[in-house]
C-alpha cells in the first residue's frame, strides 16, 4: 500500500512542478535558508499555498516528496517510518532533500524529523497547526529550525495574480489609479486565498465551505471536540465580530458556553488552525495586558464576507482587518511586537508596532473620507498615544493614519501625523 501511495504522490509532484505559479513575497527569505543546516518549516492555514511555495522553493533541485494528509493513510491506522524511508528511496534513489507535507498528521513527527536531520537530510516541512508545530519545534528542534509563515496572498501577490502592473516610467495614470482602487476593493471584500484570486470561483461559496472544512478538520477532528456545535457557534460569532473587542465572560453569556476554561481552550484551537488571531491591549504591565478585553481578527477578509450574517460587512472594520493581516505577513508578531492601545482618555489606537521595548509606530485605520472633524478625531488619538508612549530615547517615530485614498499630514507639539493611502502602504 505504501509503495502505491509514494508512487502516486511522486506523479502528483511532477504534475505540480509543471505548472506556473504566482511568485511569493517570502521566496527570497526562504531561498536564503534553503542550504543551511536547519529544518525549514513552512507554516500557515490550509489552502494558503504552502505546498506550492515549497515546490517552487525546491524546483531547481532533486527532492523526495511525501504528503501525510492522505485519506488512505488515515484509514490504514498507522505508518512505519522505516518502511516510508525505504519506499521513498526506492522511488527516488540517493536523494537527501525531502519535502514532507502536513507533517503534523504523523504521530511523534518531531522525533522522526530530528533523527533524519541528524542523518544529514535537508528537510522542508509544511504544517497547518501553528501551536502544535511551534510547541514541538521549541521543545525538540531548538536552534535547528527556521519557521517560514505563508498566509493568503498579500496585496502585491494579489496584483500579480490579477496580472496588474503599475507603469512607473509613465507615472501613475488616472486610469491605472482607478483600476488599482477597483482591485483593492475586490481584495478588501474577497481576501487573498490563492484559489479565489487566480480562479473564477465564487469567493463566498468557496470560502464558506473552506472555513467549515478547516473548523472540522483542524479543530473538531484533531482535538476530538465533543460539542462541535458550540465551537462552530463560537467561530461564527467571532468572525462576525471581527476587529472588535471581546471578553471570555461576555462570550459565555452570549453563547451559553460551559465554562471560561473551555471557552479559552476553544479560542486557542481556532487560533492554532489559523482561522483567527486575538490581539492584546498594549501596556507595560503584563497584568493589564492579560485582564483587558482582546480584539479578534480573521486570517483573511474573505472569511468575513463568506460567513457574515449582516448583508454587507463594515468596510472600515474590513480595512482594519486587512491592515492587521498585512502587518502579520510582514513578520510583525501579534502580542509581542503588535498590540492595540487605549489612551488615558479612553481613545483607541488600532495598532501599536513595537521593536524591542520601544513603540516605533502607531497606526490608525480610517475608511471614511477625511473631513476636518474626522481628521481631528483620528489625529487626536494618535497625538495622545504618541505622548503617552514616548520613552527616554524620544517620541514615537511614526504616527500614521491609513486612509482609503487620501494623503496629507497634520502637526501638533512637534509630532506629525501622516495620512497615507492604503494602496500606497500596501505596495510599500
Automatic annotation (TrEMBL):
Pfam families: AAA_14, DUF4143. Residues 39-159 form the AAA domain. Residues 217-367 form the DUF4143 domain. It comes from the Bacteria. This is ATPase. The lineage of its organism: Bacteria, Candidatus Uhriibacteriota.
Amino acid at each position: 500500500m505504501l509503495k502505491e501511495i509514494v508512487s502516486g504522490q511522486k506523479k502528483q509532484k511532477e504534475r505540480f512542478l509543471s505548472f506556473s505559479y504566482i511568485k511569493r513575497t517570502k521566496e527570497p527569505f526562504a531561498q536564503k535558508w534553503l542550504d543551511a543546516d536547519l529544518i525549514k518549516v513552512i507554516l500557515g492555514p490550509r489552502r494558503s499555498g504552502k505546498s506550492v511555495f515549497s515546490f517552487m522553493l525546491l524546483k531547481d533541485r532533486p527532492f523526495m516528496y511525501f504528503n501525510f494528509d492522505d485519506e488512505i493513510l488515515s484509514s490504514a491506522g498507522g505508518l512505519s517510518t522505516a518502511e516510508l524511508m525505504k519506499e521513498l528511496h526506492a522511488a527516488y534513489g540517493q536523494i537527501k532533500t525531502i519535502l514532507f507535507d502536513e507533517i503534523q498528521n504523523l504521530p511523534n513527527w518531531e522525533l522522526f524529523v530530528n533523527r533524519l536531520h541528524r542523518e544529514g537530510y535537508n528537510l522542508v516541512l509544511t504544517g497547518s497547526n501553528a501551536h502544535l508545530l511551534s510547541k514541538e519545534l521549541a521543545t525538540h528542534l531548538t536552534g535547528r529550525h527556521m519557521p517560514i509563515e505563508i498566509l493568503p496572498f498579500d496585496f502585491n501577490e494579489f496584483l500579480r495574480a490579477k496580472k496588474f502592473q503599475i507603469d512607473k516610467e509613465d507615472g501613475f495614470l488616472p486610469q491605472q489609479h482607478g483600476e488599482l482602487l477597483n482591485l483593492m476593493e475586490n481584495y478588501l471584500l474577497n481576501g487573498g486565498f490563492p484559489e479565489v484570486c487566480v480562479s473564477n470561483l465564487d469567493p463566498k461559496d468557496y470560502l464558506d465551505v473552506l472555513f467549515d472544512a478547516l473548523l472540522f478538520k483542524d479543530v473538531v477532528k484533531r482535538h476530538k471536540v465533543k460539542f462541535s456545535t458550540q465551537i462552530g457557534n463560537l467561530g461564527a460569532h467571532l468572525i462576525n465580530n471581527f476587529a472588535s473587542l471581546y471578553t471570555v465572560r461576555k462570550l459565555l453569556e452570549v453563547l451559553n458556553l460551559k465554562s471560561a476554561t473551555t471557552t479559552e481552550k476553544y479560542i486557542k484551537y481556532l487560533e492554532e488552525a489559523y482561522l483567527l488571531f486575538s490581539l492584546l491591549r498594549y501596556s507595560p504591565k503584563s497584568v493589564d495586558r492579560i485582564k483587558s478585553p482582546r480584539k479578534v481578527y480573521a486570517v483573511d477578509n474573505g472569511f468575513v464576507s463568506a460567513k457574515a450574517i449582516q448583508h454587507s460587512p463594515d468596510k472600515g472594520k474590513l480595512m482594519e482587518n486587512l491592515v492587521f493581516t498585512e502587518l502579520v505577513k510582514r513578520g510583525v508578531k501579534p502580542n509581542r511586537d503588535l498590540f492595540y492601545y487605549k489612551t488615558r482618555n479612553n481613545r483607541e489606537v488600532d495598532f501599536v508596532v513595537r521593536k524591542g521595548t520601544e513603540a516605533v509606530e502607531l497606526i490608525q485605520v480610517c475608511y471614511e473620507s477625511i473631513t476636518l472633524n474626522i481628521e481631528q478625531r483620528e489625529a487626536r488619538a494618535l497625538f495622545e498615544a504618541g505622548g503617552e508612549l514616548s520613552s527616554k530615547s524620544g517620541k514615537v517615530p511614526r504616527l500614521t493614519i491609513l486612509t482609503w485614498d487620501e494623503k496629507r499630514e497634520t502637526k501638533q507639539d512637534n509630532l506629525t501625523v501622516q495620512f497615507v493611502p492604503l494602496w500606497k502602504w500596501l505596495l510599500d
